Amino acid sequence: MTDLFAGRFSLDDFRGLAACGGFSYGDVLGAGRGWAASVLFNAAMAEQFLRFFHRADTFSFGACNGCQMLAELRSLIPGAEHWPSFVRNRSEQFEGRLVEVEVLDSPSILFAGMAGMRAPIVVSNGEGRVNWPGPQPAQAKPVLRFAGSQGAAEQYPANPNGSPAGITGLCSLDGRATIVMPHPERVHLSAQMSWAPRDAGRWSPWMRMFRNARVWVG
Question: Among this protein's residues, is 92 annotated catalytic?
Answer without folding.
Answer: no
